[in-house]
């Protein structure tokens, strides 16, 4: 499965809109983190792109979230067990073990925090958002309340400070800012 096939599958399963923007944001963060760590950028990108594939199907049954995805992906041998495991980890269904697991776990809620930060900026552009302002907003639990701070903080499991992680994450999202409308 290449990126184009995965993207088509995501659009087929979840449609377009804000969820798609979230998904491609997570993909961008995963690609940037893989690049930083010298990992397989395409492989990590696919994990980010596919992580919420079953969201529409499991919205009313969160205990099934990621398990339906895993079943759907079983027909694609390129999506190996480690990739599916990382996808399970982001939904707290499996404990994080690998760097890829921790990266997805921390990246998933980070996109909401960064998107909200961009939308609050006078220019509404992610290119203008500074790490220092995100750090301040991170401390305000009411800001982007759905962005789980405890999960974002697990970037420490990657050997990254929160500031470093947010910097890499901003860089990843800036690379796709036109697709995000930010």
Task: Walk me through the topology.
Blueprint: H1 3-14, H2 18-37, H3 41-50, H4 55-58, H5 67-73, H6 81-90, H7 99-120, H8 131-139, H9 149-152, H10 162-174, H11 177-180
Helix pairs in contact: 1-3, 2-3, 2-7, 2-10, 3-6, 6-7, 7-10, 8-10
Q: So what's the CATH class? A: Mainly Alpha
Order of helices and strands: HHHHHHHHHHH
Say what oligomer this is.
Answer: single chain
Total number of helical segments? 11
Rg on CA atoms, Å? 15 Å
| CATH level-3 fold name | Hypothetical protein af1432
User: Span between N and C termini?
Assistant: 29 Å
Shape: globular
**What is the helix content?**
55-70%
Task: Give me the secondary-structure category.
Answer: mainly alpha
What is the mean predicted local confidence, pLDDT? 97
Instruction: Please identify, by name, the CATH architecture.
Output: Orthogonal Bundle
Largest sheet properties: none
Q: How much beta, percentage-wise?
A: under 5%
Care to count the β-strands?
A: 0
What is the count of distinct domains?
Answer: 1
Features:
about 65% helix, Hypothetical protein af1432, about 180 residues, single chain
Describe this structure in words.
There is one protein chain. With 182 residues, the protein is mainly alpha-helical. The chain has one domain: Hypothetical protein af1432, CATH 1.10.3210. The protein has 11 helices and no strands. Helix 2 crosses helix 10 and helix 7 packs across helix 10. The chain starts with a helix and ends with a helix. The mean pLDDT is 97.
């Amino acid at each position: 499965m290449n990126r184009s096939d995965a993207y088509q599958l995501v659009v087929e399963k979840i449609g377009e809109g804000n969820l798609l923007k979230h998904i491609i944001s997570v993909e961008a963060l995963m690609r940037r983190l893989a690049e930083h760590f010298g990992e397989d950028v395409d492989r990590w990108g696919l994990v980010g792109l596919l992580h919420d594939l079953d969201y529409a199907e499991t919205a009313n049954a969160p205990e099934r979230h990621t398990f339906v995805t895993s079943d759907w992906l079983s027909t694609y041998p390129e999506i190996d067990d480690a990739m599916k495991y990382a996808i399970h980890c982001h939904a707290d269904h499996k404990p994080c073990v690998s760097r890829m697991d921790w990266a997805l776990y921390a990246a998933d809620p980070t996109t909401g925090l960064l998107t909200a930060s961009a939308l609050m900026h006078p220019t509404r552009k992610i290119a203008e958002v500074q790490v220092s302002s995100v750090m301040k907003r991170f401390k305000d639990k009411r800001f982007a309340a759905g962005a789980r701070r405890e999960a974002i903080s697990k970037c420490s499991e990657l050997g990254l400070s929160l500031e470093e992680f947010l910097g890499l994450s901003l860089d990843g999202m800036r690379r796709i800012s036109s697709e995000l409308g930010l």
